[in-house]
Write a sequence for this structure.
């Protein structure tokens, strides 16, 4: 089986172009310990049947400064988070960003700032697997979001202030055991975005 590395996922020329156009966001490198079950799920998506080379995290801000969160029918009750979506293996990051923003929210957005990457190393015992999230601050008007892809299972939206993203991160980290790996993975982007928007 192929050993996947971050170099397989990140096109450095593309990353330089994003930074030149939208600001050179920070590159955060983190290790996340996950269960064997969660590791095998990522291995399936990234190596055995690769469906993505990373994801975009959509920080959609409307004129009053608040940012959009969403929830899905299979999430734990009352859990909302920043929308995100996979970048296909042969897809440009900006193309994935545009596609996912439309599929998940139906909103017309414009890129305000590239906030950077989160470069993960998922770890389960001696096994290692990389993943990358690209974080973008996007601007939208006050139109009501409406998911365009019913397969996403999105059941609700709400807006929060940048400061409230820390509470979202805390809630994600405190999810019960069945959701613990997912919650810890998802929490980090919320802390990074809160830092970026409040600095």
């Amino acid at each position: 089986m192929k050993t996947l590395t971050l170099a397989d996922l990140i096109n450095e020329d593309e990353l330089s172009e994003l930074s030149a156009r939208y600001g050179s966001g920070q590159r955060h490198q983190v290790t996340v310990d996950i269960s064997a079950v969660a590791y095998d799920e990522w291995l399936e998506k990234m190596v055995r049947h690769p469906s993505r080379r990373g994801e975009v995290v959509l920080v959609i801000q409307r004129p009053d400064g608040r940012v959009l969160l969403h929830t899905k029918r299979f999430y734990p009750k009352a859990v909302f988070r920043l929308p995100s979506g996979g970048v296909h293996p042969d897809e440009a990051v900006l193309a994935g960003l545009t596609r996912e923003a439309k599929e998940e929210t139906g909103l017309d957005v414009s890129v305000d700032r590239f906030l950077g990457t989160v470069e993960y190393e998922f770890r389960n015992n001696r096994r290692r697997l990389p993943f990358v999230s690209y974080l973008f601050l996007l601007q939208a008007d006050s139109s009501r979001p409406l998911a365009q892809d019913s397969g996403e299972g999105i059941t609700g939206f709400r807006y929060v202030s940048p400061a409230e993203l820390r509470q979202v991160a805390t809630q994600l980290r405190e999810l019960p055991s069945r959701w613990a790996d997912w919650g810890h993975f998802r929490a980090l982007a919320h802390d990074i975005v809160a830092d970026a928007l409040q600095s």
User: Anything to note?
Assistant: The longest strand covers residues 110-124. DSSP finds six helices and seven strands in the chain. Residues 177-198 form the longest helix (22 residues).
